[in-house]
Design brief:
Pfam families: adh_short
Bound molecules: NADP nicotinamide-adenine-dinucleotide phosphate
GO molecular function, one term: oxidoreductase activity
Number of strands: 8
Strand content: 5-15%
Keywords: Membrane, Oxidoreductase, Transmembrane, Transmembrane helix
Radius of gyration: 23 Å
Protein name: Retinol dehydrogenase 14
Order of helices and strands: HEHEHEHEHEHEHHHEEHH
Strand order of the largest sheet: 3-2-1-4-5-6-7-8
Number of helices: 11
InterPro entries: NAD(P)-bd_dom_sf, SDR_fam
């Protein structure tokens, strides 16, 4: 009798636990099943800029690129992060072909200065990985932009535009320079109209996840417009979705949903090694060369089409972003001030010699 009761209890407890365990196992396998990029792909002689290389995916990517022979330029949010990242990356890879630099995407001035220094001091740039991002509560950048749109989109828009000449210089149609924008699958529910929030036109309640998705949608549309602009000019661009990855990205999510998300991240999400595979693929594969402007996930094209994203709306978004940056007093070209100074200096030297 006692044995019978025990076995019923055991069944009531063990069976649901086994089902839940099985489900978790299946979900985990589904989320984590990933394609691996060619392990032999090398980047010798290539200089690759990675934003947000101080943690998460960007840091793992920087390690991998350095191990595979690239010169890696890692942009870090603070000077302290720059120094600690330099120490970490060098001790992890043994490579001294790594340069860490300060660049805070919440300041357009900082992005401009970073690009100017980079272009003045590096011989070549072969690829940019626009990886840094935040998922955070409502706030403003120092340029009075919505913080997520500022960091995730506008800062990278400026960076990419300022570095494009350098990319164009060394890219050829058989070996083009590459721009990789790291996005997320949920961009498909982003809205171009939300981009108005970057201009301070927020109305109603602020939904952090919606703004994040919209910032990633804007970044994906940047990929498309870059592909359109530089077709056959030796620069290709891709969006890469790393899938769900266990990183610090979710640290600002609050409440029960936030806690649930962080627990899921630890238990179910991909490791950063798994998450970087599609980025590595977009950086190295020859198969992608004809697919500039596409979105990749798991080393495969996974493009999203939306009737809202017409050629016109994508171009308009580009123009609005450029106008916005100019309205903040930031130039969209490098070296103009220096050129003027050089010209003034040359003029005064000529005038002096004529006196
Ligand atoms: N994790 C996921 O599940 C997931 C899914 C889809 C897409 N993604 C995308 O993957 C990319 C990498 O994210 P992650 O998951 O690796 O997150 P993460 O660990 O939070 O890394 C974000 C990186 O961005 C940097 N960053 C933040 N604000 C910055 C600023 N103002 N200026 C310069 N750098 C700044 C961070 O610097 P600090 O280290 O100094 O904070 C950090 O290095 C993001 O674009 C994200 O949208 C992630």
């Amino acid at each position: 009798m006692l044995e019978g009761t025990l076995s019923v209890y055991a069944f009531i407890v063990i069976f649901p636990l086994a089902v839940i365990g099985g489900l978790i196992f299946l979900i985990r396998n589904f989320i984590r099943s990933t394609e691996y990029c060619d392990a032999d792909a090398r980047f010798d002689g290539k200089t690759i800029v990675v934003t947000g290389g101080s943690s998460g995916l960007g840091r793992t990517l920087s390690v991998e690129l350095a191990k595979r022979g690239a010169r890696v330029i890692v942009a870090c949010r603070t000077k302290a992060r720059r120094d600690s990242t330099a120490y970490f990356l060098r001790s992890k890879t043994g490579s001294f072909n790594i340069r860490t630099m300060f660049m805070d995407l919440t300041s357009l001035d900082s992005v401009y200065d970073f690009c100017q220094e980079l272009v003045d001091t590096e011989d070549r740039i072969d690829a940019i990985v626009n990886n840094a991002a935040i998922l955070s509560p409502q706030d403003k950048t120092s340029d009075d932009l919505d913080i997520m749109l500022g960091v995730n989109y506008i800062g990278h828009f400026l960076l990419t535009n300022l570095l494009c000449d350098k990319l164009l210089k060394h890219g050829t149609s058989s070996s083009p320079s590459r721009i990789i924008n790291v996005v997320c699958g949920s961009l498909r529910s982003g809205h171009i109209s939300r981009i108005d929030e970057m201009e301070g036109k927020t109305e109603g309640s602020y939904n952090m996840r919606n703004v994040y998705r919209s910032s990633k949608l804007a970044l994906h549309l940047l990929t498309k417009e870059l592909a359109h602009k530089y077709v056959e000019e030796g620069v290709v661009s891709y969006s890469a979705d790393p899938g769900y990855v266990n990183t610090g990205l979710y640290k600002h999510l609050e409440g029960p949903f936030g806690k649930f998300n962080q627990t899921c991240a630890k238990a179910l999400y991909r490791t950063t090694e798994e998450g970087i595979q599609t980025i590595l693929y977009c950086l190295s594969s020859k198969d992608v060369l004809k697919q500039s402007g596409s979105l990749f996930k798991d080393c495969r094209v996974c493009d999203i089409r939306n009737s809202e994203w017409t050629e016109k709306s994508v171009k308009e978004l580009w123009d609005r972003a450029s106008e916005l940056i100019l309205s903040k007093g930031i130039k969209m070209e490098l070296g103009a001030a220096d050129d003027e100074e050089e010209a003034d200096k040359a003029d005064s030297e000529v005038a002096d010699s004529e006196q």
